[in-house]
Amino acid sequence: MNHDTLRRPNQPNQFRTKVYRVVRAIPAGQVLTYGEVATRAGYPGAARAVGAVMRANPKSFVTHPNDRDAVPCHRVVAANYQLGGFNQGSGWKARLLQGEGWQITNNQLIRHEQAMNVSSALDAPPAPASASHQ
Q: Which residues are catalytic?
Protein backbone atom coordinates (compact mmCIF):
# COMPACT_ATOMS: atom_id res chain seq x y z
CA MET A 1 0.00 0.00 0.00
CA ASN A 2 1.26 3.46 -0.88
CA HIS A 3 1.79 5.50 2.31
CA ASP A 4 0.67 8.72 0.57
CA THR A 5 -2.83 7.29 0.19
CA LEU A 6 -3.06 7.03 3.97
CA ARG A 7 -2.56 10.78 4.32
CA ARG A 8 -4.56 12.10 1.38
CA PRO A 9 -8.33 12.02 0.97
CA ASN A 10 -9.37 9.48 -1.67
CA GLN A 11 -11.84 11.86 -3.34
CA PRO A 12 -9.71 14.89 -4.27
CA ASN A 13 -12.46 16.90 -6.00
CA GLN A 14 -14.90 16.35 -3.15
CA PHE A 15 -12.18 17.22 -0.63
CA ARG A 16 -11.19 20.38 -2.51
CA THR A 17 -14.85 21.46 -2.74
CA LYS A 18 -15.36 20.98 0.99
CA VAL A 19 -12.12 22.80 1.84
CA TYR A 20 -13.04 25.76 -0.38
CA ARG A 21 -16.51 25.88 1.22
CA VAL A 22 -14.98 26.04 4.71
CA VAL A 23 -12.40 28.66 3.70
CA ARG A 24 -14.94 30.87 1.90
CA ALA A 25 -16.94 30.94 5.16
CA ILE A 26 -14.04 32.43 7.17
CA PRO A 27 -15.04 36.06 7.76
CA ALA A 28 -12.61 38.93 7.26
CA GLY A 29 -10.50 39.40 10.37
CA GLN A 30 -10.71 35.72 11.35
CA VAL A 31 -8.37 32.84 10.59
CA LEU A 32 -8.37 29.06 10.86
CA THR A 33 -5.39 26.75 10.94
CA TYR A 34 -4.85 24.16 8.21
CA GLY A 35 -5.82 21.52 10.78
CA GLU A 36 -9.02 23.33 11.74
CA VAL A 37 -10.01 23.62 8.08
CA ALA A 38 -9.35 19.89 7.59
CA THR A 39 -11.50 19.00 10.59
CA ARG A 40 -14.36 21.31 9.57
CA ALA A 41 -14.25 19.85 6.06
CA GLY A 42 -14.69 16.38 7.57
CA TYR A 43 -11.09 15.20 7.19
CA PRO A 44 -9.35 15.51 10.57
CA GLY A 45 -5.63 14.97 10.21
CA ALA A 46 -5.49 16.20 6.61
CA ALA A 47 -3.81 19.55 7.35
CA ARG A 48 -1.08 18.99 4.75
CA ALA A 49 -3.68 18.15 2.12
CA VAL A 50 -5.45 21.44 2.97
CA GLY A 51 -2.11 23.19 2.43
CA ALA A 52 -1.83 21.57 -1.00
CA VAL A 53 -5.34 22.75 -1.92
CA MET A 54 -4.55 26.27 -0.75
CA ARG A 55 -1.28 26.26 -2.69
CA ALA A 56 -3.19 25.33 -5.87
CA ASN A 57 -6.01 27.86 -5.31
CA PRO A 58 -6.77 29.36 -8.73
CA LYS A 59 -8.83 32.24 -7.29
CA SER A 60 -7.02 33.97 -4.44
CA PHE A 61 -7.96 37.45 -3.27
CA VAL A 62 -4.74 38.71 -4.86
CA THR A 63 -5.47 37.38 -8.35
CA HIS A 64 -9.28 37.83 -8.27
CA PRO A 65 -9.99 40.72 -5.86
CA ASN A 66 -13.51 41.42 -7.15
CA ASP A 67 -14.63 37.83 -7.70
CA ARG A 68 -17.20 36.73 -5.14
CA ASP A 69 -16.04 33.12 -5.69
CA ALA A 70 -12.46 33.98 -4.71
CA VAL A 71 -11.11 31.79 -1.92
CA PRO A 72 -9.56 33.78 0.95
CA CYS A 73 -6.73 31.31 1.41
CA HIS A 74 -4.70 33.99 3.21
CA ARG A 75 -7.03 33.36 6.19
CA VAL A 76 -5.65 29.84 6.61
CA VAL A 77 -2.57 29.78 8.82
CA ALA A 78 -0.15 27.26 10.25
CA ALA A 79 -0.47 25.65 13.65
CA ASN A 80 -0.02 27.94 16.65
CA TYR A 81 -1.12 30.83 14.41
CA GLN A 82 2.15 31.04 12.53
CA LEU A 83 1.88 32.80 9.16
CA GLY A 84 2.47 29.72 7.01
CA GLY A 85 2.79 29.71 3.24
CA PHE A 86 0.84 31.48 0.52
CA ASN A 87 0.66 30.80 -3.21
CA GLN A 88 1.30 34.50 -3.96
CA GLY A 89 4.15 34.77 -1.45
CA SER A 90 4.16 35.27 2.32
CA GLY A 91 4.55 39.04 1.89
CA TRP A 92 1.13 39.22 0.26
CA LYS A 93 -0.39 37.00 2.95
CA ALA A 94 1.03 39.23 5.67
CA ARG A 95 -0.28 42.41 3.99
CA LEU A 96 -3.76 40.94 3.50
CA LEU A 97 -3.96 39.78 7.12
CA GLN A 98 -2.61 43.09 8.42
CA GLY A 99 -5.33 44.83 6.42
CA GLU A 100 -7.86 42.68 8.30
CA GLY A 101 -6.55 43.69 11.73
CA TRP A 102 -3.74 41.23 12.42
CA GLN A 103 -0.26 42.17 13.58
CA ILE A 104 2.52 39.82 12.54
CA THR A 105 5.68 39.63 14.60
CA ASN A 106 8.35 37.01 13.89
CA ASN A 107 5.91 35.12 11.66
CA GLN A 108 3.37 34.95 14.53
CA LEU A 109 -0.16 36.36 14.16
CA ILE A 110 -1.46 38.61 16.94
CA ARG A 111 -4.84 40.31 16.85
CA HIS A 112 -4.30 44.05 16.48
CA GLU A 113 -6.59 44.72 19.49
CA GLN A 114 -4.48 42.36 21.62
CA ALA A 115 -1.31 44.15 20.57
CA MET A 116 -2.92 47.52 21.33
CA ASN A 117 -4.03 46.31 24.78
CA VAL A 118 -0.53 45.09 25.59
CA SER A 119 1.14 48.30 24.42
CA SER A 120 -1.51 50.42 26.16
CA ALA A 121 -0.92 48.59 29.42
CA LEU A 122 2.83 49.11 29.08
CA ASP A 123 2.40 52.83 28.32
CA ALA A 124 -0.18 53.49 31.04
CA PRO A 125 0.94 55.39 34.12
CA PRO A 126 1.12 53.34 37.31
CA ALA A 127 -2.11 53.07 39.23
CA PRO A 128 -2.40 55.47 42.19
CA ALA A 129 -1.66 54.05 45.61
CA SER A 130 -4.69 52.91 47.51
CA ALA A 131 -6.12 55.48 49.92
CA SER A 132 -7.00 52.78 52.46
CA HIS A 133 -3.50 52.90 54.03
CA GLN A 134 -3.76 56.49 55.34
A: 73
